[in-house]
Amino acid sequence: MDYDIAVIGAGPYGLSAAAHLKASGVNVRVFGEPMQFWAKKMPEGMLLRSPRVASNISDPTHIYSLEAYEAASGRPPSAPVPLETFVEYGQWFHKQLGSDLDQRNVSQIRAEQNGFTVTLNDGEETRCQRVVVATGIGPFKYKPKVFEHLDPMLASHCYEGRNIRSFSGKRVAVIGAGQSALESAALLHEAGAEVEIIAKISQLRWIGSHPWLHNLGPISTLLYSDHDVGPAGISRLVAMPKVVHRIPLKLRDKIRTRAVRPAGSKWLPERLTKVKISTGRMVTSASSKGQEVTMKLDDGSERSVDHVLMGTGYSVDIRKYEFMSPDLLSKIRLFDGYPVLGSGFCSSVPGIHFIGAPAARSFGPLLYFVAGTEFASRELTSHILRRR
To answer: Of 109, 129, 159, 182, whose CB count within 10 A is highest?
Structure first.
């Protein structure tokens, strides 16, 4: 074996897991470009939805926090946290791993006797005993079928890294009612685009719309965790992934859905006052002619725009990970695209672990957020150490 563990992905979860494993004496190697998705696929100018306290990438001694990076780099603390700051923080964090990070991408993982073979994009192969998949949500972009046939230059997803400033002076329809859609609409408007938000829910929702619930002293502490994922009560439950893991799947799904339903941060409404918003509406058909898209809505009205930007989130399905060999995928037990995970984030294939968003169906919605790196890394490391 070349390594005990190969970590696939160098975003917050991959970097955090590697830091914990390395500190425990495990021979670990991380593969991937540090913070690639955040740096190249997120809308430029974005602000993090998570509060500062929930934006730390976990390390075992808590010395590589966001505050530590700001102090080391001379950046003044800010809230909410700008995307640029978070990307640079993650890249600074990765330097703590030194030579244990390989910026080449993985092209395939195959199961072998007593371990796995990891093939890199330049053809080199390496062998390891375990694989930790921490590659994030990049392949999981959800695009409504009504837009699938359109040219990507006319209809794109907000997680595809399009330059917001390039839409200045253009008519843009933003589809969705979650943070990604609403913030994209604000950024587009501020860049000089003519923007309309089209959302199927009857009224937009805003995170923290009941601030008095956060100012009840000890009672608020019982209702909300520092992660601030989900409404009162559910927020506290979400902060206990091991408890969530024991809840029957049907109820667990209800908790997950309620905790991450489409909503925007409380600092967005002021930025959207001059943006046209159409709620309770769905696009039933879309066609293009030249450089224009014509959409028909369910109320019979039409819209003609220069671009459609889909802020429609993502839908986890690990079968979209191209580096997983078909034989390996066929042996991983799934429910609706999510891997079924046990203790230590173990899949049904011994030695294959999934952390981050693919683990949210098993351990709850905290695993969708950076705040989940603390639990994921400690649980993963503890499990592996017990079995060494």
So the answer is: 182
